[in-house]
Write a structure and sequence with these properties.
alpha/beta, globular
């Protein structure tokens, strides 16, 4: 089984309690989820409401880029998130225990999955996908080091594709792969799949 892994999933899962997503925490030997913040969720949904511009942008990649860059209601998302982040940190004492780090989340998940996978004779191979931020000057915190430590500890094979890409494989504004970047990624993933399924 080939699992495609992208770094933003780990970063987004690191939200503090009281945000739009539940937060995984531990208190002693117990692991639990804190509830999501209903108002944060509603505020996020308000930014997703369709409009004439967002509907029209679905028919034009150029218009979509313009809408996302200059007219999108999501431009207010940053300040909204910052507000809720500050509130969550202020009220963090309401939630017992401490946040589980990305290393532990992945480790716990794979340890839970392992007996089932062994029973089904399924071997995992993780493919670490490229991202534009790895080419930035301030790329602290952007990297697969925690994941690689888990994979090595649990003896799970992985392939890091980030070194196979360059900055010009991505669009600078929306950070997605260009057509050539997508083609390159497709070829690399196909090689991994063929290797795992001879």
């Amino acid at each position: 089984m080939v699992v495609l892994y992208y770094l933003n999933d780990r970063i987004e899962n690191g939200t503090p309690p009281g945000e739009i997503l539940p937060s995984l925490r531990k208190n002693g030997q117990s692991i639990f989820f804190t509830p999501a913040n209903e108002e944060a969720y509603k505020a996020c949904m308000r930014t997703m409401r369709p409009s004439i511009l967002t509907t029209a942008s679905s028919y034009s990649a150029v218009l979509d880029l313009m809408v996302g860059s200059f007219f999108s209601p999501r431009r207010g998302t940053h300040s909204r998130d910052t507000h809720h982040l500050a509130a969550a940190r202020k009220n963090q004492r309401e939630y017992p225990g401490i946040m589980i780090g990305p290393f532990e989340v992945l480790e716990y998940l794979l340890r839970i999955m392992s007996p089932y996978l062994d029973k089904q004779n399924i071997e995992l191979t993780f493919v670490l996908l490229p991202y534009l931020e790895q080419f930035g000057e301030n790329n602290a915190g952007w990297g697969y080091k925690p994941e690689k430590e888990v994979f090595r500890m649990l003896e799970i094979p992985y392939i890091d594709l980030t070194d196979d890409f360059r900055k010009n494989d991505f669009y600078p504004i929306d950070r997605h792969l260009t057509p050539k970047g997508q083609e390159k990624l497709g070829h690399l993933i196909a090689q991994v799949v063929r290797r795992d399924n001879p």
